[in-house]
Design goal:
It comes from Cohnella herbarum. It holds the Pfam family SBP_bac_8. This is Sugar ABC transporter substrate-binding protein. It contains 20 helices and 13 strands. The strands form 3 sheets. The protein has a 6-stranded mixed β-sheet with strand order 2-1-3-12-5-4. The protein is globular and about 80 Å long. With 471 residues, it is an alpha+beta fold.
Length: 471
């Protein structure tokens, strides 16, 4: 989950207060009072009503400013008012210091009961015994999230993603119309091959003289409009390695495959969009603001990135006149998109795991975070929102989204298709170290100083060591 995404999340949470909580969810919880601190009515005052059992206090941590924390606390207050057993207090920690603060608190034995966790840290914290097994959290409930959203370590579910996000192809419809080029397909069975994607990008790439890359006299140093941009943040690059028949890891994430020819070839194809095809701007894969730099800036006709952009930035751009669309990703050999979602965890240091899970179950239900879904930041986690068209209409029919049929095909159906695969951090340890090293390894590949094959081969043993948590 990206920084811009999460900063927007807390700001949107206030919308949930307008929507309110469904009466069904608010009537009961399964939590039982701890019994600690309970007081009894004095025998000398029979007319006085007994005081209620003291609520179990749960601390929930999140990244964000104090103001964002207060907005989230207002949502938690809705939960607190819905039952008599639990009281949730929100602890906001700035993004820049979040994991450092959690590590300090862990060392001191003072972790919160539950909280947000970066995707790339979930399995590592679980392997170190810092997270509770939440496999039974939804037993007897009809609100269990999709299996694809479970973070699993050694066969146990240690977290569920709070939202179901996938990678998409965004595009500027006005640029396509002006060039008389057909829109990218929003149906999986019509997805472009990589070659078709590049060929279309050339038709939409223009230099200052109006020439395209495949025309004589084209000046690659004076491009005024690019045809495409493929996000090259390390974790998103795995999409293309998988699509080309390779991958970063084996099936259980214990062995590194990124050195295979299929994987390095896929990464090189992404680099060649800038280096050889001249259809993409230079990107070194360091910042997650690709949609803002491309589609919203009006400099690129189509760009890949996560669905959350619909709510974090594109809804505002749409309101200001941006005519954009959504489509499925192109493919090399296999049709692939990655699904992901930031995790909510229960820390093992808590004395109240049952109550912490009750809060997470409530907080994660669509009825209680509807503002995030309606805005386009989150996608629902329950299968019924994808299969029941009445619910899909409730979710998708709103002015923040592209047209219903387009979005349903390119997002709703795509997320449930065979193309959707879980990002590797759902099951692979030490992805923080691996992705950090991979990002630095590929730096010279994007500028053409070396090839993907050469760079990865040179650093392959170090990447394998990172996968095992070795320095």
């Amino acid at each position: 989950m990206k920084k811009g995404f999460m900063i927007s999340v807390a700001m949107i949470l206030i919308l949930a207060l307008i929507v309110g909580c469904s009466s069904k969810n608010n009537e009961n919880t399964n939590a039982s009072p701890s019994g600690e601190g309970a007081s009894k009515s004095p025998e000398s005052s029979p007319a006085q009503e007994p005081s209620k059992t003291e609520k179990v206090k749960i601390i929930y941590s999140m990244w964000g400013s104090a103001e964002e924390g207060s907005k989230t606390q207002e949502v938690a207050d809705k939960f607190n008012a819905s039952q008599e057993n639990i009281e949730v207090e929100v602890q906001a920690i700035p993004w820049e210091n979040y994991m450092t603060k959690l590590n300090t608190m862990a060392t001191a034995g003072q972790l919160p009961d539950t909280g947000m966790m970066r995707e790339d840290g979930v399995i590592q914290w679980s392997s170190e015994g810092m997270l509770n097994d939440v496999s039974a959290m939804y037993e007897g409930s009809d609100s269990k999230p999709l299996d694809s959203l479970a973070y699993k370590h050694q066969g146990k579910t240690v977290a569920y993603a709070s939202a179901n996000e996938i990678l998409l192809l965004y595009y500027n419809k006005d640029m396509f119309d002006k060039a008389s080029v057909p829109y990218p397909p929003n149906a999986l069975d019509k997805a472009w091959t990589w070659d078709e994607f590049v060929a279309t990008a050339k038709k939409l790439t223009i230099d200052k003289n109006g020439k395209h890359p495949d025309e004589d006299g084209f000046d690659s140093q004076s491009i005024v409009q690019y045809g495409a941009s493929v996000e090259n943040l390390p974790w998103q690059l795995e999409t293309w390695a998988l699509s080309n028949g390779g991958g970063f890891y084996n099936a259980d994430g214990t062995e590194v495959k990124i050195g295979d020819d299929a994987s390095t070839e896929a990464i090189q194809k992404v680099a060649d969009l800038y280096l050889k095809d001249h259809v993409a701007p230079l990107s070194v894969g360091q910042t997650d603001d690709g949609i803002q730099r491309t589609i919203i800036a009006g400099t690129v006709a189509m760009a890949t990135n996560g669905q959350w952009n619909v709510g974090t930035s594109l809804n505002a751009a749409k309101a200001e006149g941006l005519n954009y669309g959504v489509a499925v990703l192109p493919y090399m050999k296999e049709k692939v998109t990655l699904n992901t979602g930031g995790a909510n965890v229960v820390f093992s240091q808590t004395k109240h795991p049952k109550e912490a899970m009750e809060w997470l179950k409530w907080y994660g239900s669509e009825e209680n975070n509807w503002g995030l879904i309606e805005s386009g930041i989150w996608m629902p986690v329950l299968e019924k929102w994808y299969k029941d068209e009445t619910l899909t209409h409730k979710w998708v029919d709103n002015p923040n989204f592209p047209p219903y049929e387009e979005y349903k095909s390119a997002v709703v159906d795509y997320a449930q298709s065979s193309a959707a695969r879980p990002a590797s951090w759902f099951f692979t340890n030490y992805t923080t170290e691996f992705n950090t090293l991979l990002g630095s390894t590929l730096g010279d590949v994007w500028t053409g100083k070396t090839t993907a094959k050469e760079a990865i081969s040179k650093n392959l043993e170090a990447l394998k060591a990172a996968n095992k948590g070795e320095k």
